[in-house]
Structures are given as structure tokens and as C-alpha cells.
Amino acid sequence: ITPNPACPPPYEEVEFVNPPFSPLNPMGGSPTVSIDPVTGMLTGIPNLQGQFTVGVCIKEFRNGQLLSIVRRDFQFTVTECEPLVDASMGGLNVQPMSNGYRVTSCGRTDIQILNTSQDMNHIEEVVWRFNLPDTTLNASSWDLNMTFPGPGIYEGALLLNPGNIGCSDSTKVHLEIYPEIHPDFDYAYDTCVAGPVSFTNKSFIDEGGQIASFSWDFDDGTVDTANYHATHIYNEPGDHLVSLTIRDQNDCEMTKAETVSYNPVPALILVRPNDTVSCVPSEVFFNNLSTPIDDSYDIHWDFGDGETSGEISPVHTYRTAGIFDIRLEITSPIGCYTDTLFPALIEIQPPPVAGFYYAPEVLDNFNSDVAFFDASEYSVHWDWYIDGNLVAQKPDFEYS
Predict the structure, then answer these.
(1) Does some domain include residue 272?
(2) Three-state DSSP state, 115
(3) Assuming Cys at both sites, which of 37, 140, 146, 194 could form a disulfide with 264, CB separation 3.0 to 4.6 Å?
(4) How many structural domains are present in the chain?
(5) What is the pLDDT of residue 2?
(6) 365 in a structural domain
(7) Share of the chain above pLDDT 70, in %
(8) Last residue of a domain, which of 262, 292, 312?
């Protein structure tokens, strides 16, 4: 402001439009435009357009004695304008805040941040800057790809065209790197006898981090979030991709997956035929209820009549009468073996042979009653028909 140098005193007192202006709030703003009494740095964001005059008084002291006083007036013109550049960023785990961006990283110290600033035609220089306790990390690449010393909180900024008054911008970066999660587990089970698989959780978090939650997935539709060390029984054999997910108090999570090859033989062989007593010829379905087994297992049935089968649950036809022992052998894909003999499980009886006689053999008008007698072999049920009509269901009967 002219004149320069300033006019000599005396000075008239300046009258402020109040509210909101005052000697300590000459321009308003959010935050209020103010001066640091130690550094002399004038900062703030004006939110009203117009011309403002700000007076600054500087007093110099030495050993408690006032040496000099300097007063200066500064004129600021605040007007609405379109910025030529706008600092912004994006990417995984990058969240906007009121005064910049918050970036989080779960265990990884190599940080990537995408630069989404505009307008690229007016951006000539890019500076990423992070202040560490004993050094400053700088990068001049468009996108940030920087490795940090370890977990912790880092404050930084993205600067566009630094030092270029009127065509520059910046935004703060608040970076939080959390300790790394190490999910790990062991498992043990009897490889040849079907039974439970025991899982031991060996997970940990660097720098003494606390595990907030965990989840076991056993790859058979079963999930366990209650047992830190888990026990699980599989009903089906084969390769199961078991995974353990660990989550910390920062909502970071890591997962370890490992294939568990579960191919034991059944601890107990269970067979349920649909019929155990029938006549020749008899078709019997042998329902194999043993677990765990599937098509990868070697199955051998001996039906006791010289016939065999390799199916899991076969159908067999008996064509001769007798009492038959059933033997079932099971071998797993890794060579585990078990067998069971079911003695006298199936009874096949000869088919019945129908026969009868009656008396008297000659009937007349004076003697019209006749008795019928069963002469069948291997019979247990009787249906007597005369002229197509059912008349009796017992071995012997009389008919008039």
C-alpha cells in the first residue's frame, strides 16, 4: 500500500465492520486469517470476496528491551476464480478427508497411490513429500511408489507446481501402515482310519498386534469362528482346501489356505440290504453306508455265491437257494485297507411248488360238499380261486 515508506504518526484509529471483523480478525475466513506471533506466518482461508487491508505491527526485543517497532499494511484482494490445477489422489485404501486423504496399508510398506490430479496440461512438476523424524522422503513421479521404514503413521503431502504462485495446489496425505498379519496353522490326523482332523492355529501379528477375530473354512460348507484351535470331521474323502482368515483391530485381514488330503478307510463298514430273506430268483440291493468313500476307492464285494462286484452300492441277483455270507473289502487311494464279513446275511429260499388234492373225487346231488387239501412245497401263503373268485386263504378248506 502506498505511500512507501508510510506516513509518519499520529495515526487515526481504524474502524472495523463488526461483526465479524476486528483487529484480530481482519479478513474472517474458515479457518480465520491470522498471524503467528512467533513466526510471523500469516495463514487462513478467506471466504468473503472483496478488498481487505491488514495491518501488521512488529516489535523487536533484545534482553527484554524494546529496540524497534515496524508497522506495515497489506492489501489483499479476494475474488472467485477457477483453479488451473487441483491436487487429488485415489487407489486402494485411499479415502478423502476434510483436509486431505487418509491412506491405510495392512502390513505392506511399499505404498502405491494413484495421482488423479487435474489439469495435466498445467501440471509441470509433481512432488510427493513425507516428513520422517530424522529425514524427508521425496518422490517426483506422477504416481507414488515409495517404500517406508516400517509400520507407523506418516504425514505427507502431494505438491503440484510448488513455488508457482497462481498455478499450484497441494493436498495432505495421512498414511497409516499397520503391522503385518501372519496366518499359519498345522493339522494332524490318522491317515488310514476315519476320524477327526485336528487344526492348530499358529498365527501372529508383528509388533505384538492383537488378533481380533478368526475364521476356519473347511471346504465342505462348514465354517468355524468359535474355536481358535479347531477339530473337524469330514464325511467325504478327497482333497479339501482349508483356509484360515485372521483379522486385527484395524480391520486388516490375511488368509492362509492349504490342501488337506483326507483319504482314510471307514472306521466301521455299514451295509444295509433291501431284503435279507427272499426266494429264487432274488434281486438284492446292497446299500453301502460306510463313510468316507467315493469312486476313488477300490471296492470289492463277495456275495457268497461265487459272484463279485466293484461298485460302491451294487445290485446282485441270486439264482440259487441257500444261506450266503457277504464280504466287503475297501482300499483307499493311499493304500489303507479294511474289510468286514457279514455271516449268513442273505437267505434265499427255493420257489414254492403249487399242488393240492380234494375229496371226494366224485360228487352227486346227495353229496355236494368237497374238501380241498394243500399239497404245495415251500409255501407260506395260499390263495384259493374257484371260477376266478377268491374263496379261501388257508392251506385247507371245504366248499359247497
Answers:
(1) no
(2) strand
(3) 194
(4) 5
(5) 56
(6) yes
(7) 98
(8) 262
How far is residue 397's CA from residue 385's CA, in Å, rounded to a whole number?
12
Q: Is residue 271 part of a domain?
A: no
| CATH number of the domain where residue 217 is located | 2.60.40.10
**Confidence band, pLDDT 50/70/90 cuts, at residue 18:** low
**Same domain, residue pair 291 and 329:** yes
Q: What is the pLDDT of residues 240-272, one digit of tens each?
A: 999 999 999 999 999 999 999 999 999 999 999
| Enclosing H/E stretch for 69 | strand 65-78
The answer on 9 and 63 residing in a single domain is yes
Q: What torsion, rounded to 10 degrees, do the Cα atoms 25, 30, 36, 42 define?
A: -90
Q: With H, G, I as helix, E, B as strand and everything else as coil, classify residue 18.
A: coil
d(CA 41, CA 34) in angstroms, rounded, equals 8
330 and 284 belong to one structural domain: yes
If phi > 0 it is left, if psi is from -120 to 50 it is alpha, else beta; for residue 40 that is: left
CA–CA distance, 347 with 234 (Å, rounded to integer): 35
Domain boundary among 50, 80, 110: 80
In this structure, are 73 and 94 located in the same domain?
Answer: no
Is 189 inside any structural domain?
A: no
CB under 8 Å to 283, separation ≥6 — which residues?
315, 316, 317
Q: Cα-atom radius of gyration of the chain, to the nearest Å?
A: 48
Distance separating alpha carbons of residues 51 and 33, to the nearest angstrom: 14
Dihedral sign from CA coordinates of 308, 313, 318, 324: positive
* Cell of residue 316, nine digits: 446282485
- 98 and 76 inside one domain: no
Model pLDDT, residue 343 = 98
For 5, 375, 383, 384, the CA distances from 353, given in Å and listed in that order, are: 140, 9, 13, 14
Q: Which domain holds residue 236?
A: 197-262
Residues, the chain: 400
Which grid coordinates are listed for 328?
466287503
- The sign of the CA dihedral 193, 199, 200, 202 is positive
Name residue 344's amino acid: A
The DSSP letter of residue 125 is: -
Centroid of chain to Cα 319: 56
